[in-house]
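User: Please predict the structure of the protein below. I'd like the answer in structure-token form so I can feed it into my own downstream comparison script.

Assistant: Understood. Taking the following sequence of 288 residues as input:
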Amino acid sequence: MLLVAGNLVYDWIAGPVSELAWEQTTWPESFATGIGGNGATTAYAAARLGAPVRLVTARGDDAHGAICDERLASAGVERVYLPGLTGGTAVTMGVFRPGGARALIHRPGVLVEAFQNVSSLRLFGAGVSWLHIGNPFAVPGLRRHAASYLREARDAGWTTSLDLGWDRLGEWMRVVGPCLPYCDWLFANAAEAQALGPFESPATVVIKRGAGGCTVNGVSVPGVPVNAVDSTGAGDSFCGAFIAAAMRGLEPLAAARVANAYGAQSVSAAGATTALQGWDSVGAARLR
């Protein structure tokens, strides 16, 4: 069982939009609504590829949360929502340009309080063999507790992984540094890795490079050509696919090939998870 701790967001994504103009109406070709957020997207992707997944996250008691819950359930994700939080489900509005680049506006809602008073994830650990933390920078409580969650997971004998996001507060190694001794896998895109600066870690470091594929401890794995529509959620889909492949017993480079294929699948339609399919759609990628 994969345990994912991270954010759940209701996404509203539109495009392609070359430019926005005030006091005018833009008519994009595509709109996508539904599940987003690093934690939820990673959990959904891994589950779609056949991994047993439990997601610990936060949602509001509103229509946006209900839509996300239904989408997660459709993929077989076991959902655990942290209780006693106030505010609505997190929402992100976004537009993407021709070629897939995006701009996002975010309201964190219940994520402001999520994980703040959760000192341990062991309560949610029945049957778990892998803990993944999706973007600690997106949730204040994960900034605070990520290292201790990873440490207790390592003590329990679980495999551990951490996926970075962009740290708008610039705390980078203040948050990530204490996590590194307890990570088996560290995922980041090229800009995030550069922002961390030089570091040493026992983790296998996977750098996501978009259309350029990825590197696994410096070994390059080429990307999969695709007509990129929207890059929203591609990195999280990559992580979910990599973990699902690794849980099937694939070696790191084979798992990376599967993850590259799933990331390419993700960007082929508007929205973080719209285009994601099952294992048969990417399983052959491990042989390339």
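That's the full token string. Residues 140-155 form the longest helix (16 residues).
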